[in-house]
């Protein structure tokens, strides 16, 4: 897992250097926001596997996903909305210009939360 993380960081740095040279920002933005999403999913898979073994993975916690996952998804997609689609929605400029590390954090959180919300409906 650590090797994948380091390899992805090197790839991200390479994409950022290319973006500085030829002014194509979208590949670096998309890779920088979606590889933590995949890492978050990978971190949550062992707990999902345990819930599947105990037969507790029968529902989806919609309230938890809407309360935390939906804002995280908005923050995650704000650089793409601002630079890629040229939409000026509330806070997209703020999230895309000033919080690249926060976007990576929310991307990891969204990946982890998408898998963590799969459990029995009555259990919190």
Percent of residues in β-strands? under 5%
Q: How helical, in percent, are the residues?
A: over 70%
Number of domains: 1
Largest pleated sheet: 2 strands, antiparallel
Oligomeric grouping of the chains: single chain
Q: Can you tag this structure with a few keywords?
A:
single chain; 5 helices; two-stranded antiparallel sheet; mainly alpha; 2 strands; 124 residues
Report on this structure.
- With 124 residues, this protein is mainly alpha-helical.
- It has one domain (2-119).
- Helix content is 77%, strand content 3%.
- The protein has helices spanning 2-22, 26-53, 62-84, 92-98, 100-116; strands at residues 59-60, 118-119.
- A two-stranded antiparallel ribbon has the order 1-2.
- Helix 2 (26-53) runs parallel beside helix 5.
Chart the SSEs and their pairings:
Layout: H1 2-22, H2 26-53, E1 59-60, H3 62-84, H4 92-98, H5 100-116, E2 118-119
Antiparallel strand pairs: 1-2
Sum this structure up briefly.
Helices cover 77% and strands 3% of the residues. It is mainly alpha-helical and 124 residues long. The mean pLDDT is 79.
